[in-house]
Amino acid sequence: MRIPAHSVCTAIRDDIVAGVYERGSRLTEELLARRYGVSRVPVREALRTLEAEGFVVTRRHAGACVAEPTEQEAADLLEMRMLLEPLGAARAAQRRTEAHLKVLRGLVRLGQERARRGNSEDLRSLGGWFHETLAQASGSPALTSTLAQLRHKIAWMYTVEAPTSPVESWAEHGGIVDAVARGDGERARAITTLHTERATAAHRLRFPGQADRTDRVRTSQPPVNITSLRH
Protein backbone atom coordinates (compact mmCIF):
# COMPACT_ATOMS: atom_id res chain seq x y z
CA MET A 1 0.00 0.00 0.00
CA ARG A 2 1.41 3.39 -0.98
CA ILE A 3 1.34 5.85 1.91
CA PRO A 4 0.15 9.32 0.79
CA ALA A 5 2.76 12.05 0.92
CA HIS A 6 0.40 14.28 2.92
CA SER A 7 0.31 11.69 5.72
CA VAL A 8 4.11 11.61 5.81
CA CYS A 9 4.14 15.40 5.74
CA THR A 10 1.78 15.55 8.72
CA ALA A 11 3.93 13.09 10.67
CA ILE A 12 7.18 14.97 10.03
CA ARG A 13 5.57 18.34 10.76
CA ASP A 14 4.12 17.05 14.04
CA ASP A 15 7.54 15.73 15.05
CA ILE A 16 9.20 19.05 14.22
CA VAL A 17 6.61 20.92 16.30
CA ALA A 18 7.07 18.44 19.16
CA GLY A 19 10.86 18.95 19.11
CA VAL A 20 11.77 15.45 17.94
CA TYR A 21 14.05 17.10 15.37
CA GLU A 22 16.14 20.01 16.61
CA ARG A 23 16.29 23.31 14.79
CA GLY A 24 19.02 23.17 12.17
CA SER A 25 19.30 19.36 12.24
CA ARG A 26 19.50 17.40 8.99
CA LEU A 27 16.50 15.51 7.68
CA THR A 28 17.83 12.72 5.51
CA GLU A 29 15.38 10.88 3.29
CA GLU A 30 16.78 7.49 4.25
CA LEU A 31 16.37 7.98 7.99
CA LEU A 32 12.92 9.53 7.63
CA ALA A 33 11.75 6.72 5.34
CA ARG A 34 12.93 4.18 7.90
CA ARG A 35 11.30 5.99 10.82
CA TYR A 36 7.89 6.29 9.17
CA GLY A 37 7.97 2.96 7.37
CA VAL A 38 7.65 4.38 3.87
CA SER A 39 9.69 4.69 0.70
CA ARG A 40 11.81 7.76 -0.01
CA VAL A 41 9.36 9.07 -2.64
CA PRO A 42 6.64 10.33 -0.24
CA VAL A 43 9.37 11.61 2.10
CA ARG A 44 10.84 13.67 -0.73
CA GLU A 45 7.41 15.10 -1.58
CA ALA A 46 6.71 15.83 2.09
CA LEU A 47 10.00 17.71 2.51
CA ARG A 48 9.16 19.90 -0.48
CA THR A 49 5.80 20.78 1.10
CA LEU A 50 7.39 21.48 4.47
CA GLU A 51 9.98 23.71 2.81
CA ALA A 52 7.17 25.71 1.20
CA GLU A 53 5.53 26.03 4.64
CA GLY A 54 8.75 27.25 6.24
CA PHE A 55 9.50 24.26 8.49
CA VAL A 56 12.38 22.99 6.34
CA VAL A 57 15.21 24.65 4.42
CA THR A 58 17.61 23.16 1.88
CA ARG A 59 21.26 23.93 2.53
CA ARG A 60 24.19 23.46 0.19
CA HIS A 61 26.20 20.34 1.05
CA ALA A 62 23.70 19.44 3.82
CA GLY A 63 20.38 18.94 2.06
CA ALA A 64 17.09 19.28 3.91
CA CYS A 65 17.36 20.70 7.44
CA VAL A 66 14.89 21.90 10.05
CA ALA A 67 14.49 25.66 9.68
CA GLU A 68 15.85 28.11 12.27
CA PRO A 69 13.44 31.04 12.32
CA THR A 70 14.60 34.34 13.76
CA GLU A 71 12.84 36.11 16.61
CA GLN A 72 11.50 38.64 14.11
CA GLU A 73 10.03 35.90 11.95
CA ALA A 74 8.39 34.40 15.03
CA ALA A 75 6.95 37.79 16.01
CA ASP A 76 5.61 38.26 12.48
CA LEU A 77 3.59 35.05 12.85
CA LEU A 78 1.76 36.38 15.90
CA GLU A 79 1.08 39.67 14.13
CA MET A 80 -0.32 37.85 11.10
CA ARG A 81 -2.59 35.79 13.30
CA MET A 82 -3.86 38.93 15.05
CA LEU A 83 -4.91 40.25 11.65
CA LEU A 84 -6.34 37.05 10.19
CA GLU A 85 -8.26 35.57 13.14
CA PRO A 86 -10.63 38.59 13.34
CA LEU A 87 -11.05 38.53 9.56
CA GLY A 88 -12.04 34.88 9.75
CA ALA A 89 -14.58 35.58 12.48
CA ALA A 90 -16.14 38.42 10.46
CA ARG A 91 -16.38 36.17 7.41
CA ALA A 92 -17.85 33.37 9.53
CA ALA A 93 -20.66 35.69 10.63
CA GLN A 94 -21.74 35.90 6.99
CA ARG A 95 -20.96 32.40 5.76
CA ARG A 96 -21.33 29.97 8.67
CA THR A 97 -23.68 27.02 8.42
CA GLU A 98 -25.92 25.59 11.11
CA ALA A 99 -23.48 22.68 11.37
CA HIS A 100 -20.66 25.10 12.16
CA LEU A 101 -22.77 26.81 14.83
CA LYS A 102 -23.68 23.50 16.42
CA VAL A 103 -20.02 22.50 16.74
CA LEU A 104 -18.94 25.95 17.98
CA ARG A 105 -21.69 26.07 20.62
CA GLY A 106 -20.82 22.57 21.77
CA LEU A 107 -17.15 23.51 22.14
CA VAL A 108 -18.08 26.64 24.11
CA ARG A 109 -20.25 24.61 26.49
CA LEU A 110 -17.42 22.14 27.06
CA GLY A 111 -14.85 24.91 27.40
CA GLN A 112 -16.88 26.84 29.94
CA GLU A 113 -17.48 23.67 31.94
CA ARG A 114 -13.77 22.73 31.91
CA ALA A 115 -12.79 26.33 32.75
CA ARG A 116 -14.93 26.23 35.90
CA ARG A 117 -13.19 22.97 36.85
CA GLY A 118 -9.73 24.32 36.05
CA ASN A 119 -8.75 21.56 33.60
CA SER A 120 -6.07 23.42 31.60
CA GLU A 121 -5.02 20.53 29.34
CA ASP A 122 -8.55 20.00 28.05
CA LEU A 123 -8.94 23.75 27.56
CA ARG A 124 -5.91 23.96 25.28
CA SER A 125 -7.25 21.23 22.98
CA LEU A 126 -10.76 22.68 23.00
CA GLY A 127 -9.41 26.12 22.19
CA GLY A 128 -7.54 24.73 19.20
CA TRP A 129 -10.65 22.97 17.91
CA PHE A 130 -12.72 26.11 18.44
CA HIS A 131 -10.45 28.33 16.37
CA GLU A 132 -10.05 25.68 13.68
CA THR A 133 -13.84 25.37 13.37
CA LEU A 134 -14.26 29.16 13.36
CA ALA A 135 -11.77 29.40 10.49
CA GLN A 136 -13.63 26.70 8.56
CA ALA A 137 -16.86 28.62 9.10
CA SER A 138 -15.32 31.56 7.21
CA GLY A 139 -15.99 29.66 3.98
CA SER A 140 -12.50 30.52 2.71
CA PRO A 141 -10.22 27.49 2.11
CA ALA A 142 -7.23 29.81 1.60
CA LEU A 143 -7.81 31.59 4.91
CA THR A 144 -8.46 28.32 6.72
CA SER A 145 -5.24 26.81 5.35
CA THR A 146 -3.18 29.88 6.19
CA LEU A 147 -4.46 29.99 9.77
CA ALA A 148 -3.79 26.27 10.19
CA GLN A 149 -0.17 26.77 9.09
CA LEU A 150 0.17 29.72 11.45
CA ARG A 151 -1.11 27.65 14.36
CA HIS A 152 1.39 24.86 13.61
CA LYS A 153 4.33 27.26 13.38
CA ILE A 154 3.31 29.25 16.45
CA ALA A 155 3.01 26.00 18.44
CA TRP A 156 6.53 25.14 17.27
CA MET A 157 8.08 28.49 18.19
CA TYR A 158 6.20 29.41 21.35
CA THR A 159 5.02 28.04 24.66
CA VAL A 160 1.73 29.41 25.94
CA GLU A 161 0.99 30.30 29.52
CA ALA A 162 -2.43 29.28 30.82
CA PRO A 163 -4.83 32.25 30.87
CA THR A 164 -5.11 33.92 34.28
CA SER A 165 -8.88 33.79 33.92
CA PRO A 166 -9.95 30.80 31.78
CA VAL A 167 -13.61 31.50 32.61
CA GLU A 168 -13.28 34.98 31.12
CA SER A 169 -11.43 33.58 28.11
CA TRP A 170 -14.24 31.13 27.37
CA ALA A 171 -16.81 33.87 27.90
CA GLU A 172 -15.08 35.62 25.00
CA HIS A 173 -15.39 32.44 22.93
CA GLY A 174 -19.09 32.46 23.72
CA GLY A 175 -19.39 36.11 22.69
CA ILE A 176 -17.73 35.36 19.36
CA VAL A 177 -20.21 32.54 18.65
CA ASP A 178 -23.18 34.73 19.63
CA ALA A 179 -22.03 37.43 17.18
CA VAL A 180 -21.43 34.87 14.43
CA ALA A 181 -24.88 33.37 15.01
CA ARG A 182 -26.50 36.83 14.69
CA GLY A 183 -24.56 37.56 11.51
CA ASP A 184 -22.87 40.54 13.20
CA GLY A 185 -19.51 40.57 11.47
CA GLU A 186 -18.21 43.74 13.12
CA ARG A 187 -19.01 42.47 16.61
CA ALA A 188 -17.42 39.10 15.83
CA ARG A 189 -14.31 40.89 14.53
CA ALA A 190 -14.08 43.17 17.59
CA ILE A 191 -14.37 40.38 20.18
CA THR A 192 -11.94 38.17 18.28
CA THR A 193 -9.43 41.02 18.07
CA LEU A 194 -9.55 41.49 21.83
CA HIS A 195 -9.37 37.75 22.45
CA THR A 196 -6.40 37.28 20.10
CA GLU A 197 -4.49 40.20 21.62
CA ARG A 198 -4.88 38.72 25.10
CA ALA A 199 -3.85 35.28 23.90
CA THR A 200 -0.79 36.70 22.15
CA ALA A 201 0.44 38.27 25.39
CA ALA A 202 0.65 34.77 26.93
CA HIS A 203 3.11 33.48 24.30
CA ARG A 204 6.75 32.96 25.25
CA LEU A 205 9.43 32.23 22.65
CA ARG A 206 10.86 28.72 22.90
CA PHE A 207 14.18 29.61 21.27
CA PRO A 208 15.29 33.11 22.31
CA GLY A 209 18.37 34.10 20.35
CA GLN A 210 20.03 31.97 17.72
CA ALA A 211 20.49 28.35 18.71
CA ASP A 212 23.72 26.59 17.83
CA ARG A 213 23.42 24.90 14.48
CA THR A 214 23.82 21.14 14.47
CA ASP A 215 24.12 18.69 11.63
CA ARG A 216 22.86 15.75 13.57
CA VAL A 217 19.38 14.24 13.52
CA ARG A 218 17.95 12.18 16.32
CA THR A 219 18.01 8.54 15.33
CA SER A 220 16.97 6.96 18.61
CA GLN A 221 13.27 7.56 18.00
CA PRO A 222 11.21 4.40 17.50
CA PRO A 223 9.64 3.76 14.09
CA VAL A 224 6.25 5.37 13.52
CA ASN A 225 3.22 3.53 12.22
CA ILE A 226 2.22 6.07 9.61
CA THR A 227 -1.13 4.42 8.85
CA SER A 228 -2.33 5.19 12.37
CA LEU A 229 -1.76 8.92 12.01
CA ARG A 230 -4.60 11.25 11.18
CA HIS A 231 -4.72 12.50 7.60
Key structural traits:
two-stranded antiparallel sheet, mainly alpha, 231 residues, Arc Repressor Mutant, subunit A, Four Helix Bundle (Hemerythrin (Met), subunit A)
Task: Write a structural description.
Residues 219-231 have a biased composition (Polar residues). One of its GO terms (molecular function) is DNA binding. It comes from Streptomyces phyllanthi. This is GntR family transcriptional regulator. Keywords: DNA-binding, Transcription, Transcription regulation. With 231 residues, the protein is mostly helical. The chain folds into 2 domains: 5-66, Orthogonal Bundle (Arc Repressor Mutant, subunit A), CATH 1.10.10.10; 71-205, Four Helix Bundle (Hemerythrin (Met), subunit A) (Up-down Bundle), CATH 1.20.120. 65% of the residues lie in helices and 6% in strands. It contains 9 helices and 4 strands; from the N terminus they run αααββααααβααβ. It has helices at residues 5-18, 29-36, 40-53, 71-95, 98-117, 120-137, 141-157, 166-182, 185-201; strands at residues 56-59, 63-66, 158-160, 203-205. The protein has a two-stranded antiparallel sheet with strand order 1-2. Strand 1 (56-59) and strand 2 form a beta hairpin. Helix 1 crosses helix 3 (40-53). It is elongated, with a radius of gyration of 19 Å. It starts with a helix and ends in a 26-residue tail after the last strand. The relative contact order is 0.18. Residues 210-220 have low confidence and may be disordered.
